[in-house]
Amino acid sequence: MAIRTDGLHHVTAIGGNPRRNVDFYARTLGLRLVKTTVNFDDPGVYHLYYGDAEGTPGTLMTLFPWEGVTPGRHGTGQATTTSFSVPELSLGWWEGHLTKLGLQTTRSANLEEEALTFLDPDGLRLSLVAHPQGDPRDPWDTPLVPAEHAIRGLHSVTMQVAKEDASTDMLTDGLGLRYVGEHGDKLRFAAGDGGPGALVDVLVTPNAPRGLVAGGTVHHVAWRAPDDATQHAWREELLSKGVEVTEILDRQYFHSIYFREPGGTLFEVATDDLGFSVDEPLLELGRALKLPPWLEPRREQIQGALPELNLPDENNPEVAETLANRQTQGV
Ligand code: ZN
Question: What CATH number did the domain enclosing 139 receive?
Fold first, then answer.
């Protein structure tokens, strides 16, 4: 069965102080905190999921915020920029918003799109991209970031590699993306409809130092599989090609397999189904610490060891309901 992903499912990065992380992603960037849980492989660390109102695949940025984490190094073998999609005329608003909050931003443009690049509080490189064809996805509306300017979801990731061929073969033959052309100093590949959230840029830098995955770097990039049966078939297909793939893991909100592309970036294939309402109502997403059944017996110990978060108002159910009404009424 040929593998053909529809695009990015989520990007996961390593951050520092958890409170500062919520402040930045939920307040400054205006994403919805759709799940507060722990790293299932290391429950001493939060796993925070940010996205649109429902946490739709392709809108998700997830963080392991780890107080006192050793800073990593950007370089080859990593996704070195994570880009979000914003409306075409909103970059000026974002520039003002981020500058007012003390962030340094860099504006760049090429033939097709404009972007605004900056670092998150732990040095992770992010950018906001205005896609010329627009982005039909619904935004999350927050007090600091109004819906008209809000992030629509992921736009793309930039992978930095030392050698081109093996990594780009993994994207095309391995995951079913297609090469769409040079994009500035990068090679662009597209999945599915090729819109925002279905793009990856490859930056080839033979002489750059190898990256070190730790604080302020991307841990892995996850691609979409529609359902369990497809994921199972894709896993068999990858194994038959000699790719070392993990077992299928239960991530509670989706199922996952992991493997490393030849250039070093850790890839995941995650299913579109399940979703974030499996263990709490949609209006209350992100508000309480959720644990998978196998960690629930250790809740007291796990919760006691985690620092308290300062949740944004939108994660208060009454405020969330007002916001949701406002969104459905289009005001
Ligand atoms: Zn993941």
Answer: 3.10.180.10
Q: Alpha-carbon distance 47 to 283, whole Å? A: 19
Number of domains in the chain: 1
145 found inside a domain = yes
Q: Residue 320 pLDDT > 90, yes or no?
A: no
Is residue 314 assigned to a domain?
A: yes
Query: Ligand 1 centroid vs 240 CA: distance in angstroms?
Result: 23
Rounded (5°) CA angle 250-256-262: 145
**Residues that place a CB less than 5 A from ion ligand 1:** 12, 222, 268
Residue 1 lies in a domain: no
Kindly report, residue by residue over 207-220, the tens digit of the pLDDT.
Answer: 999 999 999 999 99
Per-residue pLDDT of 44-103, as tens digits, reads: 999 999 999 999 999 999 999 999 999 999 999 999 999 999 998 999 999 999 999 999
DSSP-H helix ranges across 202-316? 228-240, 299-305
The DSSP annotation for 166-218 comes to HHHHIIIIIT--EEEEEETTEEEEE-TT-STTSEEEEEE-TTSPBPB-SBTEE
Q: Is the pTM of this model over 0.90?
A: yes
Domain extent, residue 229, equals 8-328
Give the distance (Å) from ligand 1 centre to CA of residue 36: 14
Residue 246 is assigned to a structural domain of this protein: yes
- Convert the pLDDT of each residue in 284-294 to its tens digit: 999 999 999 99
Summarised one tens digit per residue, pLDDT across range 11-38 is 999 999 999 999 999 999 999 999 999 9
> What separation in Å is there between the alpha carbon of 220 and the centre of ligand 1?
6
CA distances from 314 to 3, 29, 42, 46, 317 (A): 38, 13, 28, 20, 7
Cα(154) to centroid(ligand 1), Å: 14
Answer yes or no: are the C-beta atoms of 245 and 251 closer than 8 Å. Answer: no
For residue 294, the CA-to-ligand 1 centroid distance in Å is 19
Query: How far is the centre of ligand 1, averaged over its atoms, from the C-alpha of 221 (Å)?
Result: 7
